[in-house]
């Protein structure tokens, strides 16, 4: 191998240039060793897909040696093996801190094979030893019951991106690079993946990467020509068009194209060295001259055949270089017994006897190509971010408490209050550079603008005089209108050991439903892996919510993300709906301190009544659910009705309904229960936060009517409580009624307003008789009065706008 010296360490520029040229050139011995390493990785990859026995082919291959169900993806695998060996070389040459993200994560055999060859796999899984017995277990476990996934799953050392769902690799890569100035993230982008919306917009991430304070991302677009059964778009445009496309996105594309191994090894080695040299030059200049001008970062376009080195033809059909190589290129089963010999011939073409010794261990001269220790991509601590995770410095949220002398006496904008706390969190962690706020241009709209007192938006594009808060480095990343990017960046940031939050309009967080699902699955699996350290929680702040979108209308009204989240594993998901600003402060302090959860917090930005002092809020939020005694009058007696509420607006309307009921029907006993932690409604057997049956019944009774006013869809509460004893549950929530109207009319249209709630109570208390009938008529009259008033004046009734809670005598 060449001498491991970095050009930056040489005093003489001519010597540096000479060394760079030498490093970019493979001598015959080195390319043969690299080709051997590549062949070993390919052999192990094929073995994982197919073999059950006979891993070293000590005897002629038989059908009994093949798995009864052969599952896997071969097409992308040899290309990724090729890339991995060349990245290993450059890591050793320059002592690089590098991680590998496999966008085409269905190429799981490649990453498993390479981490096995470098030794990191066997260190984590000692039973998968680096010998023939371990190789047999390696092969058998792949896509096999009780084994491992066919993708680059959390079980794979070095992985922060499973790639089962395509599109997010480049966003994850940039998230990993933020605030990691010494890290290079090699991101392999599949040409099928490149057609997805999230990946297509992720090329713009280079406008947000600071060459001074951040690391680098090296995208490697792997053009192998096909998806499952169709050609890929980028593989079918001209070289010129492809080059201009990426240049237009602000990249310097470097091309490696061909299929002859020796030529490709030499070209790839030179191109990787060119790319790394450019990255180092960009960073050296930026950091030496404090010049954050956006550079043209390099990327590599690797064009190689799909299923490279695999079978050329099977049963008269071309395989290599076609879509037929995508998954299992040779069917080997009882219906195709003659294919056993084709498989054997293919595997023997890698000449395993030249690669592994008599014990089945990779020969030392070949194994020496891999980096050592934590420089191995499978052992890099950035790919097990919990190792690097440090606690946030947390200021006292109580300093921002709203002074509540009595319930409902003052109004406040909940997220505006939270913004001041987040400003202090940001400020306290500026030196650590381990906390960021992400969002799709909604930070100011969601009333979090106080953070800009201590930081800027990170933006490495052109700026003009009228711009606000834009700078090459900043703790807020919200200047690209893409929920996919924000989610991907934050996930990459968290997975590499940092903290953050995603603020979004509630309706449009639905855009990342599937991304959330993938992250929740990742958290679930990693909880079961002792070697995977816990990471900081993924925190969502959903503001501008359904009940505060009267000005934007129906398109902006959708609380359904809660329903989606609730279906994930109880060990992972948490949902909070604080009723006021002090509750929001308490909840968010908890979320930012938590580990390995997805925390969803829904909060409003408009001025609403404030109910609890900060001391009361802390107690209430710690419990997650509780009776608001100051709003109840059933002390010392059984309630006639339980008025439950969850969410800021439903809480307001519930309390307004209670005030009407207590004024007009003073004899009925009302219990008010407020829910902050939605998971408290589930049974304790189903969720760690769930209430026991005894505790649930003590709050909601076993047989009294429950009028539950909910922020989201009513069916969600019914689903959470369907096993509870008390079946007299009546839930009101959003029912897909909405338009541009007044704030109160939005509630009326969905029956969560005070007038509808009062009628519902009357309907469920038969003993009220004529008193109930008269009150119900009064409420119907109020609804008609409301409709006439807003149609004429364009605003809510004064008694609605000016309503204040006052405790009835």
Topology:
Layout: H1 13-23, H2 28-50, H3 77-94, E1 97-102, H4 108-118, H5 120-124, H6 132-141, H7 169-177, E2 183-190, H8 197-202, E3 216-223, H9 239-248, E4 251-257, H10 261-289, E5 297-303, E6 313-314, E7 317-318, H11 339-348, H12 352-355, H13 364-367, E8 411-413, H14 414-428, E9 435-438, E10 457-458, E11 470-471, E12 476-477, H15 483-495, E13 499-505, H16 513-527, E14 538-543, H17 561-566, E15 573-576, H18 581-593, E16 598-602, E17 607-609, H19 614-623, E18 625-627, E19 641-646, H20 648-664, E20 670-675, H21 693-700, E21 706-710, H22 714-721, E22 729-732, H23 743-749, H24 754-763, H25 769-793, H26 798-801
Would you mind describing this structure in some detail?
It is a single chain. The chain is of the alpha/beta class and 809 residues long. 37% of the residues lie in helices and 13% in strands. It has 26 helices and 22 strands. The protein has a six-stranded parallel sheet, sandwiched between helices. Helix 18 (581-593) links the parallel strand 15 (573-576) and strand 16 (598-602). The model is unreliable at 1-11 (pLDDT under 50).
């Amino acid at each position: 191998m060449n001498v491991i010296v970095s050009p930056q360490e040489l005093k003489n520029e001519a010597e540096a240039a000479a060394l760079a040229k030498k490093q970019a050139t493979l001598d015959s011995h080195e390319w043969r060793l690299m080709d051997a390493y590549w062949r070993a990785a390919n052999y192990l990859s094929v073995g994982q897909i197919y073999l059950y026995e006979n891993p070293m082919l000590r005897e002629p291959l038989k059908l009994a040696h093949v798995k009864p169900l052969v599952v896997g993806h071969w097409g992308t695998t040899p290309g990724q093996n090729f890339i991995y060996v060349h990245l290993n070389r450059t890591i050793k040459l320059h002592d690089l801190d590098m991680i590998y993200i496999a966008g085409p994560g269905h190429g799981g055999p490649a990453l498993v094979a390479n981490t096995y060859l470098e030794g990191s796999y066997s260190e984590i899984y000692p039973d998968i030893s680096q010998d023939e017995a371990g190789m047999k277990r390696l092969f058998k476990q792949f896509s096999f019951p009780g084994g491992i996934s066919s993708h680059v799953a959390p079980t794979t050392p070095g992985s922060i991106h499973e790639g089962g769902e395509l599109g997010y690799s480049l966003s994850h890569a940039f998230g990993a690079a933020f605030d990691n100035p010494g890290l290079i993230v090699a991101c392999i982008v599949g040409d099928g993946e490149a057609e997805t919306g999230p990946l297509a917009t992720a090329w713009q991430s280079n406008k947000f990467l600071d060459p001074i304070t951040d690391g680098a991302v090296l995208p490697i677009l792997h053009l192998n020509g096909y998806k499952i059964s169709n050609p890929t778009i980028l593989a079918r445009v001209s070289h010129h068009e492809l080059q201009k496309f990426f240049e237009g996105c602000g990249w310097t594309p470097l091309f490696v194209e061909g299929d002859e191994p020796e030529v490709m090894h030499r070209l790839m080695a030179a191109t990787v060295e060119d790319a790394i040299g450019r990255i180092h030059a960009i960073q050296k200049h930026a950091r030496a001259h404090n010049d954050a001008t956006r550079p043209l970062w390099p990327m590599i376009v690797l064009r190689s055949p799909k299923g490279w080195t695999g079978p050329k033809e099977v049963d008269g059909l071309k395989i290599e270089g076609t879509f037929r190589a995508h998954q299992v290129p040779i069917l080997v089963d009882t219906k195709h017994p003659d294919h056993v010999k084709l498989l054997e011939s293919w595997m023997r073409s890698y000449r395993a006897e030249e690669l592994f010794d008599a014990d089945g261990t990779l020969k030392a001269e070949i194994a020496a190509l891999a980096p050592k220790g934590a420089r191995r991509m499978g052992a890099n601590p950035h790919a097990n971010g919990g190792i690097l995770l440090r606690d946030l410095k947390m200021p006292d949220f109580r300093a921002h408490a709203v002074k509540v002398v009595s319930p409902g006496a003052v109004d406040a904008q909940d997220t505006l209050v939270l913004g001041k706390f987040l400003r202090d969190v940001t400020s306290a962690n500026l030196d650590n550079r381990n906390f960021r706020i992400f969002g799709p241009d909604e930070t100011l709209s969601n009333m979090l603008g106080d953070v800009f007192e201590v930081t800027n938006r990170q933006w490495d594009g052109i700026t003009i005089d009228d711009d606000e808060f834009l700078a090459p480095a900043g703790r807020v990343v919200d200047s690209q209108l893409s929920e996919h990017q924000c989610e991907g960046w934050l996930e990459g940031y968290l997975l590499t050991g940092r903290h953050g939050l995603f603020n979004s309009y509630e309706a449009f967080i639905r855009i990342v439903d599937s991304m959330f699902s993938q992250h929740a699955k990742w958290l679930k699996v990693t909880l079961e892996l002792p070697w995977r350290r816990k990471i900081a929680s993924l925190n969502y702040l959903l503001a501008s919510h359904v009940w505060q979108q009267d000005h934007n209308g129906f398109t902006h009204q959708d609380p359904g993300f809660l329903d989606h989240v609730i279906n994930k594993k109880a060990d992972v998901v948490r949902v909070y709906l604080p009723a006021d600003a002090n509750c929001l402060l308490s909840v968010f302090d908890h979320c930012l301190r938590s580990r390995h959860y997805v925390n969803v917090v829904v909060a409003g930005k408009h001025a609403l009544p404030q109910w609890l002092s900060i001391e009361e809020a802390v107690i209430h939020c710690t419990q997650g659910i509780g009776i608001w005694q100051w709003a109840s009058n059933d002390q010392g007696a059984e309630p006639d009705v339980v008025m439950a509420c969850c969410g800021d607006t439903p809480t307001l309307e519930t309390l307004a309904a209670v005030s009407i009921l207590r004024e007009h029907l003073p004899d009925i006993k009302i219990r008010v229960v407020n829910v902050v932690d939605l998971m408290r409604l589930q049974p304790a057997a189903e969720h760690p936060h769930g209430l026991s049956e005894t505790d649930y019944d003590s709050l909601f009774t076993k047989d009294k009517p429950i009028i539950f006013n909910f922020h989201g869809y009513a069916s969600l509460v019914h689903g959470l409580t369907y096993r509870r004893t008390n079946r007299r549950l009546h839930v009101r929530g959003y029912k897909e009624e909405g338009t541009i109207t007044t704030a109160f009319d939005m509630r009326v249209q969905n029956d969560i307003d005070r007038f509808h709630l009062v009628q519902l109570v009357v309907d469920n208390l038969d003993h009220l008789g004529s008193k109930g009938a008269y009150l119900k008529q009064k409420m119907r009259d109020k609804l008609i009065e409301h409709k006439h008033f807003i149609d004429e004046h364009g605003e809510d009734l004064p008694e609605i706008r000016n309503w204040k809670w006052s405790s009835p005598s």
